[in-house]
Amino acid sequence: MPSKRIAVLSPVAWRTPPRQYGAWETVASNITEGLVARGWDVTLFATANSRTRARLHAVVERGYEEDSSIDPKVSEYLHISEAFEHAGEFDLIHSHYDFMALTYTRLVNTPVLTTIHGFSSPRIMPVYEKYRNGYFVSISDSDRAPGLNYLATVYNGINLKLYPLRKSAGDDLIFLGRIHPDKGVHLAIEVARRSKMPLVIAGIIQDETYFREQVTPHLDRQIRFIGPVDVKGKNQLFANARALLHLNTIPERFGLVLAEANAAGVPVVAMDLGSCREVIQDGKTGFLVGSVEEAVRALDRIGEIDRRACRQRVEQCFSVETMVAAYERVYNTIFELQAQKVA
Amino acid sequence: MPSKRIAVLSPVAWRTPPRQYGAWETVASNITEGLVARGWDVTLFATANSRTRARLHAVVERGYEEDSSIDPKVSEYLHISEAFEHAGEFDLIHSHYDFMALTYTRLVNTPVLTTIHGFSSPRIMPVYEKYRNGYFVSISDSDRAPGLNYLATVYNGINLKLYPLRKSAGDDLIFLGRIHPDKGVHLAIEVARRSKMPLVIAGIIQDETYFREQVTPHLDRQIRFIGPVDVKGKNQLFANARALLHLNTIPERFGLVLAEANAAGVPVVAMDLGSCREVIQDGKTGFLVGSVEEAVRALDRIGEIDRRACRQRVEQCFSVETMVAAYERVYNTIFELQAQKVA
User: What distance lies between CA A233 and its chain's CA centroid?
Assistant: First the structure.
């Protein structure tokens, strides 16, 4: 029922969509643009320099991660409350703003759907527990907290046009993600060394100490670090990639980059932790492994993976269209539940 | 009109009242207990371990400054929103929670009065500007931002029973406050050296580098540091005090400790910056100075100050009773303004 008015509340850490890193803003953007394409009346609450075909409503100029003069706390309080002050203009607020936005939900009559992009710390759980009867979507079946009123799991979707299929494999192993121990950059380096294959590492440095102590000492002609990359940069990586290494050390929440690599036809060797087995089909679109040894062995068999099958899987399960259609079903469920409440 | 129901929203950095440091919680407590004493129906929103004769409403167990396992951001969002979710039960919410609480005010019908205990950074000003038409109280005439809808300046009041008059002077110079360059601990040390008088420094260390570099090297038999003190500790300091040195380097917002010292009959030598001239009467309850030299000279004349006059000034201007009576006038102004809005 596209006559309904939807507010999408994106984070203001980065622009929406972000130039480079910024997974939550990427997903919020994809949902917004997908809804617009399907005829919904959408208002995007995001930074003023955001780009969208929806109506943009902004009270914060730039992302606080992009301008150190901004106080993140001030930005967040101003931005989130602004959306709720306009709640009466919408039939649904779709929040991507974590626990903070929940604390405004009981002060408005408009229903609020929260996509939980990840639980950053056990210390935030009391907020989710208090508001557990709200409407929630998880981004994978594995990334769920007990007791919350989940209406669905909706996998993140990517814009397939941005990542064209590369029909033939390149030589490089690639790592794409935050430079942080959670993402297992050190394990990717170990796998590359033992496989004697070149590795290109791309991403923002989130943990400086980890980068200095566990990445920098290994950089040479075989192991290279190129910093963060945008969509163009990702495609250059995919064009030369033999496989993406994603040896996360904690349960993955979703793993957007796995879908992006698969979309380009690049097989993924992923640690079997968290949502990876929901995104990667073992032996079909990559390999799920439990150790560095298994990752090295998986690379011996990487030629068995059909690159077209990788893309087809993303087209079926992880496209913006699939995601937006799933959210439409969730929205309609909420509208029905709300109608029942009123009746 | 004590039939009205008041919610006092205290910070949750510390318990209300705090054990030692915690000026905002101290003032919120004094207002709460003063209102209760005058027959008002008061609910105090504060940490669960707070002490009050009002109704205590708490969702946060302990102050985040007292328990490092607590995420301050989570505490603040949970605590502030809880008060606003109960707004319908009150005729007025009296907020001591800075800019954060303002972002909830337009989502409730209950009027909100904000006592601004200080502007911590220019970066928070956009929030005050957005909500400038709210109801505000400044704690001194000097600590005002242009354009805000101030209803009054209400000086902080102290519980005079806690600080009995010491009729005779002691030998010590005392410094009481946060160890931070803003508070001019280094200037107090310089004045003590040049006056050849003992100095006792008490307070929490807020700036470790400053303490290490500009305080620690000077500590000896003459200049002593004793850490933070509670009310009992303050009284011991006052009992042995010749004068309180308050050589702030930025404009003081109010200066609760100036009133406490005066209450005990201790004259104050204060830098003439910000609110100090509103609290200290030059030549009557202490001296206002512009430099270390002037402070040294002021100490030569400190015997001219009548200790009883110091206490009388606090009784008249800075008692809990005076403060609460002033807030009652502000509350009644708000009730009248609200009635006009409805009519």
Answer: 18
**Residue partners of B176: CB distance under 8 A and separation at least 6:** B202, B203, B229, B234, B237, B244, B257, B260, B261
Digit-by-digit pLDDT tens for chain A (343 residues) are 568 999 999 999 999 999 988 889 999 999 999 999 999 999 999 999 999 999 999 999 999 999 999 999 999 999 999 999 999 999 999 999 999 999 999 999 999 999 999 998 999 999 999 999 999 999 999 999 999 999 999 999 999 999 999 999 999 999 999 999 999 999 999 999 999 999 999 999 999 999 999 999 999 999 999 999 999 999 999 999 999 999 999 999 999 999 999 999 999 999 999 999 999 999 999 999 999 999 999 999 999 999 999 999 999 999 999 999 999 999 999 999 999 987 7
**Model-level pTM?**
0.90
Q: Which of A61, A75, A78 to mutate to test the interface with B (most CBs of B within 10 A)?
A: A78
Stretch B50-55: mean pLDDT: 98
Q: Does the distance separating the beta carbons of B108 and A104 come in below 8 Å?
A: no
Q: How far apart, in whole angstroms, are the C-alpha atoms of residue B247 and residue B251?
A: 10
Position A92, amino acid: L
Which chain B residue is nearest to residue A122, measuring alpha carbons? B71
Q: Inform me whether the C-beta atom of residue B317 falls under 8 Å from chain A C-beta atoms.
A: no
Say if B67 is an interface residue toward chain A (CB within 8 Å). no
Contact A74 B99 (CB under 8 A): yes
For residue B92, give Cα distances in angstroms to A90, B9, B77, B151, B152. Answer: 29, 11, 20, 15, 16
Which of A207, A198, A264 lies closest to A236, judged by CA? Answer: A264
Using the beta-carbon criterion (under 8 Å), do B121 and A81 form an inter-chain contact? Answer: no
CA distances to B37, B102, B127 from B93, rounded to whole Å, are: 18, 11, 18
DSSP for B295-318 reads HHHHHHTGGGS-HHHHHHHHHHHS
Residues comprising chain A, all counted: 343
Find which of B12, B61, B73, B129 to mutate to test the A interface (most A CBs within 10 Å of its CB): B73
- Is residue A136 within 8 A of residue A111, CB to CB? The reply is no
B85's tokens: 């979710």
**CA atoms B199, B205, B206, B209: torsion sign:** positive
DSSP assignment letter at B222? S
Q: Is the Cβ of A68 closer than 8 Å to some Cβ of chain B?
A: no
Backbone angles phi, psi at A98, to 5 degrees: 55, -155
Question: Beta partners for A92?
Answer: A6
Cβ of A107 under 8 Å from any chain B Cβ?
yes
User: What type of residue sits at position A250?
Assistant: I
Please give, rounded to a whole number of angstroms, the shortest distance from the CA of B104 to a CA of chain A. 7
Separation CA B325–CA A27 (nearest Å): 54
- Tokens of residue B36, six digits: 């209760």
In angstroms, the CA B272 to CA B247 distance is 8
Chain A residue whose CA is closest to B79:
A103
